[in-house]
What does this fold into?
Amino acid sequence: MEFAKTIESVRSQVKAARSGGKKVGLVPTMGALHVGHISLIEAAVEKCDFVVVSIFVNPTQFVPGEDFEKYPRPLEADLEICKKAGTDVVFAPTPEQMYPAENITWVSVEKLTESLCGQFRPGHFRGVTTVCTKLFNIVAPDIAFFGQKDAQQAIVIRRMVADLNMPLEIVICPTVREPNGLAISSRNKYLTEQQKKDAANIYKSLQKCRQMIDAGVKETTEIITEMRKILQQVPSIEIEYISIVDAETLRNIDRIAGKALAAVAVKIGPAKLIDNILVDVSK
Ligand code: PAF
It folds into this structure.
């Protein structure tokens, strides 16, 4: 496995792979890798011949007051994980490489970024879409891999790629969960064992949503009320939002008709946790 710190270095390695006819996959990450990331790398190894994992804690997607400074950066452990998972190159640039001057050029996706986390993290998605555009321009992958856990991010990036005719495919991989249902996230590292147990109610609330839909309930307020009750059983959970939105437009819906996304964001102790499920009542 190679380690590239500079844009020139990763570009030249991708160029060599491509000239050998290889299909290039990119797994963009902010490091602090876990089994969720490993599943993305494994999907990339399966679908591509040359896999680049980027590790970059992107300052432009953190809102003031968020955890940019203390975001975990265990580079040595991350490199080991990448190597074991079959990565060809880790691209881990410095902030100066990625943003050599004040950033005054942004890529923004409208509408899809207004609901869900967009309401609470102004500027977050603009930072994500800007850094992903930069990574796509630097690495020029055939396929980039994202996790379903960050459903809004994945939908926003897919739309950006379509709207801007970017020549790559976006693959969205399933959420990986702890045995108690808690979605795996780098921010779970902030939780105590008790808080991890408490956080299981996030997925319980989403399962309740699915059960109610399977039982024929279509009114979203009715479902959200029951989901809220499950989250409120745990005093350490502070609810940011519980939303059921159209899976394409991400707008709130009153009644579930086709494909919908049920999404939850909560704070537990120092961590903000998000999770979601996709439901399809048209089937
Ligand atoms: O999901 C993440 O880890 C980040 O938002 C991403 C896609 C790597 C962009 O910084």
Observations:
- The longest helix spans residues 124-139.
- Residues 28-30, 58, 61, 128, 131-132, 150, 153 surround pantoate (CB under 6 Å).
